[in-house]
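Quick one from the shared queue. A colleague (R.T.) flagged Aldehyde dehydrogenase (NAD+) as missing a structural entry in our internal table.

Convert sequence to structure tokens.
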Amino acid sequence: MDKVHRNLIGGKWVDGIGVNENRNPSLPDELIGLYARAGREELDAAVDAARAAQPAWAATTPQARADVLARTGDAILARAHEIGNLLAREEGKPLQEAIGEAHRAGQIFQFFAGEALRMTGLKIDSVRQGVEVDVTRGPLGVVGLITPWNFPIAIPAWKTAPALAAGNAVILKPADLTPGCAHVMAQILLEAGCPPGVFNLVMGSGATLGQALVDNPDVAAISFTGSERVGRQIALGCAAGLKKVQLEMGGKNPMVVMDDADLEMAVKACLNGAFYSTGQRCTASSRLIVQKGIHDAFVAALETSRGALRIGDPLEADTQIGPVVSEAQLAVNLDYVALAAREGCEVRGGERLEREGWFQRPALFIGASNDMRSSREEIFGPCASVIKVADFDEALAVANDTPFGLSSGICTTSLKHATLFRRSSTAGMVMVNLPTAGVDYHVPFGGRKASSLGQREQGPMAMDFYTAVKTAYVSAG
């Protein structure tokens, strides 16, 4: 019988209420591993273990916490090829991209090892004579982290590392589709000396475990990355329980291509943003807003590049585009391709490939308008709408006309257009002559409108969510 990878609760590996099969989307008959599915009982046990362990973790020195995080980061970097291979098999990213994600996870832990030593506060003179004021930050307690399938090591890392650096205890609930990388991260944290109960891993149904985290009164905060629909439910539940909440949700990100753009550079940026990672990124360029003078040349050049993309097994060296993560997600993507055609777009590509696995040819929806459902709803697949506009003002208006506001971009050689777009875009992140997808770990990540709620992730600002501010007044008399 195959080994079952179990939940980590209170420093011990614990069975669940069932077993989940983790399968390869490139080769669905390949079983990567069996992973225990936790239920509410296991979730509540993890919260109890975290609550018991957290005070001692918070009371330890910043150096002790930094050392655990640094050792974790070092171990992830040392095992980046191994983790990348697992990631490519369970999620579908091409191997080099998967190794890069594992490397990023290690860097994140190393960064927040430093942040554990930089928990700064304020010392301010009071307006009253003889009174001193100290403003400090401290941990929240037990925090619940709910992560998606599309970045199965990076997102668990960028939530876990700041939470632990601040002195919190963690319950991590990874995506049911991709539990393998999170399980390896849990092993590494334990081996790096993270005390029992400070970090807990519960795997299984998001509907069951996510709701249990929201309902448990001993969980002080929830950080969630996933769909807007689920994010709204979590926000309502956290509001009812007066919990702190952080949400990273969807995107329908615009990339504007102006007549004055460098055509080769614009095509490369849009090809990367729209189709790499099989379009399974919340920062993907899913709306290509192209000025009329360059439109035809841009579409022709992008079509040539799209057609040359190498689609295949992620473990093959020349693969650029891997599979869609699951059969269910592929069905959603194909429904949107059909919808775009019904809405009047000229659809190029988008069909399922006749081979084993969940492979789809990247799609362009030519002649799209911004009021089409295919241009407004997040598809989360390798599909991009091409919307023709007359000038910069129309391009900016179309770019901002979306319920989302995560990332946006512009390709232009005009300093005027670049500056106006950076100032006027209603997205949380703006790229100039770069893909909308692709961010650094040492600066804030997040958006506006229906894309994000709460404080930013990544960089020093990530510590704001995982800490509570305390103001102390002391009489010197």
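Residues 253-432 form a domain with the Aldehyde Dehydrogenase; Chain A, domain 2 fold (CATH 3.40.309.10).
The longest strand covers residues 131-139.
Added to the table.
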